[in-house]
């Protein structure tokens, strides 16, 4: 038989008392463990470890699961950094809150909210109302690319989001390799610039985007382009592309996220050169 603390560790650090009892823990064991401090009683019928993510604990104390950007990141979805320390709580369709006065952001949507992190599809639905549109778009494409949402999930998301979100969902693709690619493609789409995505070029390989037939756009994230060896490979690719008549522009995270005007100022003249 597991001790309550050991069992909680196996269950992700938080669980209902009824779940713990289904594994053989008695109410007396849970009460004794809480009194001794080896576990914590978060609210009536809910227990956790002292090492459990404080936001998860706050969400559980409020009556639901942690959702929005925090939940998406926990599932491995690419989300733009933000300074939002507010706990976003999914309470299901009509869940009851247990907190008194607090600063939690409540989210209601169909389904039953458990403990811990909200599922990806639910977190995306809630994130649409809290994130900037481009941040939601990048997160949605990231979740799709990582196969974290199914066709059923995508249908549910489309149904629950307002009709004004349809154009974003229609534009989304499953093959976006990074959030930076998603941001660049969305922003250029808004400017009326059409991109061919994930294009295979002989002797070059697959490139992120081709615009105007002869302009290659590459978005370089740290994880894939850092280091001397990777830098050499990129230069070799660019040289091969140039030999075939292409011009290559590369942009990193800081340029796409913080210096977009510089990116646009580089792309527009290059497009004119490609068209001449």
Which labels suit this protein?
Endonuclease, Chain A; single chain; alpha+beta; 47% helix
Number of DSSP E strands: 10
Structural class: alpha+beta
Number of helices: 14
* Number of structural domains: 3
Task: Describe what is shown at a glance.
This protein is an alpha+beta fold. The protein is 47% helix and 16% strand.
Structure description:
This protein has 276 residues and is α+β, with helices and mostly antiparallel strands. The protein has three domains: 52 residues, no CATH class; 121 residues, no CATH class; 97 residues, Endonuclease, Chain A (3-Layer(aba) Sandwich). It is built from 14 helices and ten strands. Strands 7-8-9-10 form a four-stranded mixed β-sheet, sandwiched between helices. A three-stranded antiparallel β-sheet has the order 1-3-2, sandwiched between helices. Strand 2 and strand 3 form a beta hairpin.
Task: Outline the secondary-structure elements.
Blueprint lengths: L3 H7 L3 E3 H6 L4 H10 L3 E4 L2 E3 L5 H9 L2 E2 L1 H7 L13 E3 L14 E3 L12 H9 L4 H13 L5 H10 L5 H6 L7 H12 L5 E6 L3 E7 L3 E6 L1 H4 L2 H16 L3 E6 H6 L1 H16 L1
Parallel strand pairs: 5-6, 9-10
Antiparallel strand pairs: 1-3, 2-3, 4-5, 7-8, 8-9
């Amino acid at each position: 038989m597991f001790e309550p603390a050991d069992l909680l560790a196996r269950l992700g650090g938080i669980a209902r008392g009824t779940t713990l009892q289904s594994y053989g823990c008695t109410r007396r064991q849970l009460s004794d463990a809480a009194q001794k401090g080896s576990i914590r009683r978060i609210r009536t019928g809910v227990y956790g470890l002292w090492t459990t993510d404080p936001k998860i604990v706050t969400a559980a104390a409020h009556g639901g699961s942690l959702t929005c950007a925090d939940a998406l990141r926990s599932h491995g979805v690419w989300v733009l950094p933000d300074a939002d320390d507010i706990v976003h709580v999914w309470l299901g369709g009509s869940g009851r809150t247990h907190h008194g006065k607090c600063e939690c952001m409540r989210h209601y949507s169909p389904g039953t909210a458990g403990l811990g992190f909200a599922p990806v599809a639910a977190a995306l639905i809630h994130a649409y109302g809290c994130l900037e549109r481009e941040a939601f778009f990048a997160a949605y494409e990231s979740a799709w690319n990582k196969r974290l949402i199914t066709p059923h999930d995508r249908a549910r998301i489309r149904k629950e989001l307002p009709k004004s979100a349809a154009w974003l969902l229609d534009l989304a693709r499953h093959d976006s390799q990074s959030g930076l690619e998603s941001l660049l493609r969305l922003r250029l789409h808004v400017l009326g610039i059409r991109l061919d995505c994930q294009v295979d070029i002989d002797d070059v390989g697959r490139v992120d985007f081709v615009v105007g037939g002869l302009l290659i756009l590459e978005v370089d994230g740290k994880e894939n382009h850092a280091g001397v060896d990777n830098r050499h490979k990129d230069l070799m690719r660019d040289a091969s592309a140039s030999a075939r008549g292409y011009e290559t522009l590369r942009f990193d995270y800081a340029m796409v996220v913080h210096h977009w005007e510089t990116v646009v100022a580089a792309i527009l003249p290059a497009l004119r050169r490609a068209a001449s």
